[in-house]
Specification:
This protein is of the alpha+beta class. It is built from 13 helices and 13 strands. A hairpin with a 5-residue loop joins strand 7 and strand 8.
Length: 460
Amino acid sequence: MRLKNRVDRQSADSPGRLRFNPHQYPRTCRALAPILGIAICAASLVATSIASPISAYGLAAPVSPSPEAYAIIDADRGVILESRDLHTPRNAASMVKLATVLTAVTHLDPKVGVPISVRAAAEPTMRIGMPAGEVWPLEQMINSVLMVSANDASWAIAECSGGSVEGFATQAQRLLARLGARDGKFSDPAGLDDENSFGGGSFLSPWDLAVIGRNALAVPRIAAATNSREISFIDVSGRPHRYINHNKTLLNGYTGANGLKTGFTDKAGRTLIASATREGRTMIAVVFGTYDTAGWAGALLDQGFASDPRLKVEGERLPPVRIKEAKSKRGVKAVCAKGVSNPGVVAGASAGVAAGVGTATGATGSTSTSAPSKPSPPQQAASNDSSSGGSIWSTIAAWFAALIGVLAVLVILRRRAVLRRRRMRAERRRAIARAQRAGSIHVIDAKTPTGRVDAGRRRH
């Protein structure tokens, strides 16, 4: 039997089919394609694991350079376990808001209604869009400041507590000095440090923030707000609000995490003061000057929990917790400081807080309110801090890139296989045609008519 080029003889067990040269189309490629894809995927996972090992407590190892300044604090004993540039004041971004709320709770009645001035309503993002003239319960203000870093709420609280932002700066500085935060200066209640800021912005050291964080954890309503993953409520005008904590990367990713506050400005970069409680011990980590703040906070907290509480520590000791909350006075109307227009708590506002506020764990997503703020120019987005998600997002990006690579390889292999099959079919048709013309075959396959040669043989 004579066939040309790449066509072999018919096989004995399949007399109606033509068998092709295996070197023309190596079928092992098709068999190896899934194996190759699995191998590439496995290699990418191994590479990801090597690049970003997961700690025992859930967060990936930090992927950014080490912080410019940091501190690890044993909050129970009030000891600085380790630090870098402990007493150097820096732009603290929205971590300043912890000091703002601490000052407010020492001066304002818990049931006070906080009026929104034109000045506060005009603050740049991050803001929640509270219209000027409304009066909000202090509790909703605190949640707005600590969970989604609302600048308008920060200024409204400052004006209510101090009579003005200028008066509040003096009020806050006195409180910080009394608590033992002695390095920096307080000016802007929102943590702004650009042309929109008051007094050029606030400057705090890791020591100052260690003092502030330790006192903040001693105030139940502050600790509850910083530990809330998600919260929803109805404001005084009936608008629904849903907040998802900007610190969700740490809260959702680190075992025992319970706060405290993220921050970001162009000058300060990303900042974070984080806290966690595990096995009866509470640690605080302060991070300045690195973009993967959550990853570094997790690493610092790990180091703190790994320390032996029975051993004597040579580090500096924080002053004792000295914060004292203002209490409601029976029969006395809750009002702001003199000079601030305050009609008191709006009817139904307190009920709205009780009925509308709820906490849910494990939430993800972004802040959503019925009155979103208007976009601000880039230079105004100074204190629009977001979650410290460098480590998580870098891991997700690595997985996604690996998946894309695997899919690309499989698509290329599939395309090549299709082209080979097309060439094989075309060559097979040409070979059959040549064989028929030469009269070297009589039956091509079971579905092909016998043709002229077979017809001639039946006549003999």
